[in-house]
Write a structure and sequence with these properties.
Elements lengths: L9 H10 L2 H9 L14 E3 L10 E3 L15 E6 L2 E6 L3 E3 L14 E3 L13 E6 L2 E6 L3 E5 L5 E5 L2 H4 L8 E6 L2 E6 L3 E2 L10 E2 L12 E6 L2 E6 L3 E6 L7 E6 L15 H17 L5 H19 L2 H4 L3 H22 L6 E6 L5 E8 L7 E5 L3 E6 L10 E9 L11 E2 L10 E4 L3 E6 L11 E6 L16 E11 L4 E3 L3 E6 L3 E6 L4 E10 L3 H27 L6 H23 L6 H33 L10 H22 L20 H32 L5 H19 L15 H12 L1 H11 L2 H11 L18 H8 L11
Parallel strand pairs: 24-29
Antiparallel strand pairs: 1-2, 3-4, 5-6, 7-8, 9-10, 11-12, 13-14, 15-16, 17-18, 19-20, 20-23, 21-22, 22-27, 23-26, 25-32, 26-32, 27-31, 28-29, 28-32, 30-31
Helix pairs in contact: 4-5, 4-7, 8-9, 8-14, 8-15, 9-10, 10-11, 10-12, 12-13, 13-15
Length: 816
């Protein structure tokens, strides 16, 4: 408020009057002015209403009321005092002369005080509004009052985006600011500088004429597209350092990536050549009917290629390769040709039953969020969001169901997820093979799912599972054709529901699909239990045998050294088999395990071969040929297997590791890199075994003339059994496991070979008198003297036998 002017001297009189007591004032008021004995009241007083001559009294005159009221002016107040009065401005106004008190309107006028001129009069985020004699405070636009208490009011920001979530929709998003909000427009939308409502409106990009020659610009809410004129198709031109540019060029029937017919491309080149010829002869840029006829001719040509006898006579690998290339070319050509079909629905069926459905929509013409393609044998539902081309010129969704393609893809592998590593023994394609495609080729990872429904067109043979002696587990799977590996795969596909006639699948990518019935071989649990228990016993016995051959001095010699290394290689092979043979999830680790098993089993057979060679030299060539030297043994036992494994890995390193076990693959005959040397060694050792037993039988009377016939037979039986497990001839039973009726052979093979370590320990350690004597010297009490041991087979040992055969050489080796 403005300062009031300093009071005049007369103000003191007013104040004194105000402060004097009523008695004093009455005394003064009653004092007469006596001039010539006359009586009158002072200024500001008058005779009281009860005046009489005897009681002369003067009363105050109220100048602020009554008919003679003083005129103080507007926005003033009149204050009466005893004997006087004064005028003053009311609150919110100030005197024009600076006097706080004045006598009438002629002395001063009162003007309004503008309180809003004071800085921050109302506080933050407020507006001050001056009023006559006062002011009011309001929150600024975008703020609202917040009462903290009765005397404190603050203004807080209003979150317009929260109050009205759709304030910027449908073409923008709301961003709150202090005291206001902003609408962030979507691409293709903008705001006018004159638009107070901040509404995002479509930008007409066509006004700048962005399209190239051969195209017309079509604006739609949020963008535009360049629609190629009839006879032109859209293509994307890569420009270094900038975004790809879409243009229109004259349509050409040829869309094939195969430029020559060499290197096995004759089949594909012939197909694309015939397709281009049909297209060029019937192509019409204007007539839509001609385009449908062209597509029908294409399906007829496709049926002829698929049903050709030349393709069916190809090998499985070559047939799968050609069919994969054919499907790739057909999809590429349809994607290329669809650029000429703006806003079109195509549904065509060939005379042989191959069906083609396509939905083509130009940009901005997608009235539905998804599309369903319904055919006789296949149905597909897909969202338009995944169907746009990179240049966004148009959207395409297509479904091609082949009538006769399924039989050409039989025998292919089925790649499963890491959780399902088993490979089925057999599969049947129950549905037609259907190829799903869209406007671009990047279809292996979609952000939404695609739903398929397949009708079953093939029946599962009723007696299929019972036709084999092996148990088979049936499993219905949704699979797609993986063009790189040329195999079926279940990755990204899920079976939703099925009944006797149809199956519904859901996948997160697009390619060629089908429903398969896979038959998985059920492993016999008995064989697995026998194998694990037998190998554990063998490992224990092999470990004891290794210690025996290392530390028993009485049996040291060339044959004991061979026994030792045979046990070492078998021990390593059995440990690796138990630990890693079934871990097929990690393909690299599985291949390493398979390679180690390949090496150690081959090494074990090489030591078995050396067993046979030494046995032959010992029994047959007694005086003619000396034994092999130690380095010869090492070279054959460890060097030869390393060379064979190295050659096999160099030729086909992918042959290590299968879907079921970490072992050698049977594909391309790779298993023969193990079977061939093993069969050769078993054949040689079998001959040595027969010759050895024949020689012993023939000369037994000369070796031990005092032994009776029964003991001779017992010794020969023990000798034969001992040599069978040393020479590896029990592996012959493994050759008979490839028959459908080989369960008995599987059990015999599993039992004999998983217990090979047990046989070696019992027959070549426990039944040896020298070994038992060494055991007794080690474990028996030392005070009992030299332990005595007798054995019904102790007569048959190397000392007794080969001292007769080799009288000039004293040997303490183990017996035969």
């Amino acid at each position: 408020m403005a300062s009031s002017p300093a009071p005049l001297l007369s103000l003191g009189f007013y104040i004194i009057l105000d402060l004097s007591s009523a008695a004093v004032l009455n005394s003064i008021a009653s004092e007469p002015i006596n001039h010539n004995e006359s009586f009158s009241c002072l200024q500001g007083l008058h005779y009281c209403d009860s005046y009489d001559e005897d009681d002369k009294k003067c009363c105050d005159i109220n100048e602020c009321s009554g008919p003679n009221k003083v005129e103080c002016g507007r926005h003033t107040t009149c204050t009466n005092t005893n004997g006087n009065y004064y005028c003053s401005c009311i609150d919110g106004f100030y005197s024009s002369t600076g006097k706080k008190f004045f006598m009438n309107a002629t002395e001063a006028t009162c003007s309004d005080i503008d309180e809003c001129q004071e800085r921050n009069k109302c506080g933050n985020n407020t507006e001050c509004v001056n009023t006559p004699g006062s002011y009011t405070c309001h929150c600024k636009a975008g703020f609202q009052k917040d009462f903290k208490n009765a005397s404190v009011v603050i203004c807080n920001d209003i979150d317009e985006c929260q109050q009205n979530a759709s304030i910027c929709e449908p073409n923008g998003s709301c961003i709150n600011t202090i005291g206001d909000y902003l609408c962030k427009c979507k691409p293709g939308f903008g705001k006018s500088s004159k638009d107070d409502r901040k509404i995002c409106k479509d930008i007409d990009e066509c006004a700048t004429k962005p399209c190239s020659e051969g195209a017309s610009c079509k604006n739609y809410p949020g963008g535009f597209w360049c629609q190629c004129l009839p006879g032109y198709i859209s293509y994307t031109e890569a420009i270094p350092g900038s975004k790809p540019k879409s243009s229109c060029k004259p349509f050409s029937c040829s869309a094939s990536s195969s430029n020559n017919c060499s290197d096995g491309q004759t089949f594909i080149c012939n197909f694309t050549g015939q397709l281009d010829s049909i297209c060029n002869s019937s192509w019409s840029a204007q007539n839509h009917r001609d385009k449908e006829i062209l597509l029908k001719d294409m399906l007829h040509l496709l049926d002829e290629q698929v049903s050709s006898s030349a393709l069916k006579s190809e090998s499985k690998e070559e047939r799968h390769h050609k069919v994969t290339e054919l499907m790739r070319e057909v999809e590429s050509w349809l994607r290329h040709f669809s650029a000429t079909l703006a806003n079109t629905s195509i549904s065509i069926e060939s005379s042989k039953g191959t069906e083609l459905d396509m939905e083509i929509r130009t940009a901005g013409n997608l009235r539905q969020s998804s599309v369903s393609l319904l055919q006789n044998e296949t149905q597909m539902e897909l969202s338009w969001n995944v169907s746009n081309r990179e240049d966004k010129a148009f959207s395409l969704i297509g479904l091609l169901t082949y009538q006769s393609l399924g039989p050409l893809l039989t025998g292919a592998r089925i790649e499963g997820s890491e959780r399902e590593a088993r490979q089925p023994s057999y599969e049947i394609i129950l549905s037609k093979v259907a190829a799903a495609f869209i406007g671009h080729e990047n279809t292996m990872s979609l952000n939404i799912s695609v739903n398929f429904t397949f009708n079953h067109t093939e029946a599962v043979p009723a007696n299929f599972s019972s036709s084999s002696s092996r148990k088979l587990e049936q499993r219905l799977i949704c699979a797609f054709w993986e063009p790189v590996n040329q195999s079926w795969s279940t990755e990204g596909c899920e079976l939703m529901e099925t009944n006797g006639n149809s199956t519904r699948c859901k996948c997160d990518h697009l390619t060629s699909f089908a429903v398969l019935m896979a038959f998985y071989e059920v492993e016999d649990p008995g064989l697995e239990v026998i194998t694990k228990i037998g190998l554990i016993f063998s490992l224990i016995c092999l470990f004891l045998s290794i210690l025996t051959f290392l530390f028993c001095r009485s049996i040291r010699g060339i044959r004991t050294t061979i026994h030792l290394h045979l046990c070492l290689t078998l021990f390593a092979a059995h440990v690796i088999f138990l630990v890693g043979a079934g871990n097929t999830v990690n393909k690299t680790a599985c291949a390493i395990v398979a390679g180690l098993l390949h090496y150690f089993f081959l090494s074990a057979f090489c030591w078995m071969l050396l067993e046979g060679v030494e046995l032959y030299l010992m029994v047959v060539q007694v005086f003619r040929t000396p034994s092999l030297k130690h380095w010869h043994h090492m070279l054959v036992g460890y060097g030869v297997p390393a060379v064979m494994v190295g050659i096999a890995a160099a030729i086909n390193h992918q042959g290590y590791g299968t879907e079921k076990h970490c072992w050698l693959s049977m594909e391309h005959g790779f298993l023969w890199s193990f079977l061939a040397p093993v069969c050769l060694i078993i054949l040689i050792n079998s001959i040595v075994f027969v010759v050895t037993i024949w020689k012993l039988t023939k000369k037994f009377a000369d070796i031990n003339p005092d032994m009776n016939q029964l003991k001779k037979q017992k010794v020969l039986v023990i000798t034969a059994i001992a040599q069978l497990c040393i020479l590896g001839t029990t592996w012959i039973f493994g050759m008979f496991q490839f028959s459908d009726h080989s369960l008995v052979m599987s059990y015999i093979y599993t039992i004999l070979n998983s217990l090979q370590g047990l046989f070696i320990f019992v027959l070549h350690c426990l039944l040896k008198k020298q070994v038992r004597d060494d055991y007794c010297r080690l474990f028996c009490q030392r005070g009992s003297g030299k332990p005595q041991s007798s054995d019904k087979y102790s007569e048959f040992n190397s000392t007794a036998t080969f001292n007769t055969l080799r009288p000039q050489k004293s040997s303490q080796e183990s017996g035969i």
